[in-house]
Amino acid sequence: MRKQQTIKKKFSYTGVGLHTGEDVTITCKPLAVNQGIKFKRVDLPEQPELEVTVENVYSTIRCTTLGTDKWQINTVEHFLAAISAFQIDNLLIEIDANEPPVTDGSAKVFCQFLQEAGVEEQEEEVTIYQIDQPLYVRKGGQYLTILPSDQFKISYTFVSNHQGLTDQFAEYVISKEVFNEEISSARTFGFAHEVEKLQKAGLALGGSLDNAILIADDGPINKLRFSNEIVRHKILDIVGDMKLIPEFRGHIIAVRSGHELNFELAKRIKGLITKEELSC
């Protein structure tokens, strides 16, 4: 058990959206106990809100999107990963566009703002669930499973048939310190041959070498921050996507998985929690 947490003071940040290419501002404010993580679209007339839960996922195509048929918030996974690492349970995120700023393509900037805002312990306790049986999802050559463990651990194998990339592996027990030092600065990535297609579809309009690793035929164009930066970013995405469900302990093992499988596993874990109430 641990106490619920929020931030000590509000903060704002303005940057470009990865897919829209437009400026967007987020303002984060403390919330009282048992309120959860909430997004609020302040640019829309009714300023609608939704809670960050797996039930409110709208799409997992190339990113995790929350929302309804009328409005959405895209690419939430990087910010959610930082919130997860800092164990923030209650937070209001006001946003004036349909996606958070991409920053440098990682979660590092969000971690810095959370560190500066400070974390405040609250009165109510958090229930942390213990996975007591294996769960497994698969799609083609993509695999994702979770095994019982008394830690939140992620092992990821990145397998690529791209001539400019090698297979990569990384494994971490996730904590605030490990996330900050080893994972938070790993950037999102994309392939040069896909850029034109994506932009014609209205995606990646804000993408640049300042906020993404661009992979050409012979490999990454950017200088990498880690030799296995790509697999570290895939772990970052899993941390963010698992913030969609109650906190748990288990060992996630991934092979080539992305947001779609992350979402499917999150639903399976949530179903197990709801059915059996597996509190630690």
Structural account:
The protein is of the alpha+beta class and 280 residues long. The protein is built from six helices and 19 strands. The protein folds into two domains: 2-126, 2-Layer Sandwich (Ribosomal Protein S5, domain 2), CATH 3.30.230; 129-276, lpxc deacetylase, domain 2 (lpxc deacetylase, domain 1, 2-Layer Sandwich), CATH 3.30.1700.10. The strands form five sheets. Strands 11, 12, 13, 14, 15 and 19 form a six-stranded mixed β-sheet that branches. Helix 1 packs across helix 2 (108-117) and helix 1 (77-85) packs across helix 5.
What layout of secondary structure does this protein have?
Elements: E1 2-7, E2 11-16, E3 23-30, E4 37-41, E5 49-51, E6 57-59, E7 65-67, E8 72-73, H1 77-85, E9 91-95, H2 108-117, E10 119-126, E11 129-130, E12 135-139, E13 142-147, E14 152-158, E15 168-173, H3 176-183, E16 189-191, H4 192-200, E17 213-216, E18 219-220, H5 229-241, E19 248-255, H6 259-276
Biggest beta sheet attributes: 6 strands, mixed
CATH superfamily caption of the largest domain: lpxc deacetylase, domain 2
When the domains are counted, the total is: 2
Average the pLDDT over all residues and give the rounded result: 93
The CATH architecture of the largest domain comes to: 2-Layer Sandwich
Overall number of strands: 19
Q: State the shape.
A: globular
**Secondary-structure element string:** EEEEEEEEHEHEEEEEEHEHEEHEH
What is the SS-derived class? Answer: alpha+beta
Distance between the termini: 8 Å
CATH topology of the largest domain: lpxc deacetylase, domain 1
Number of helices: 6
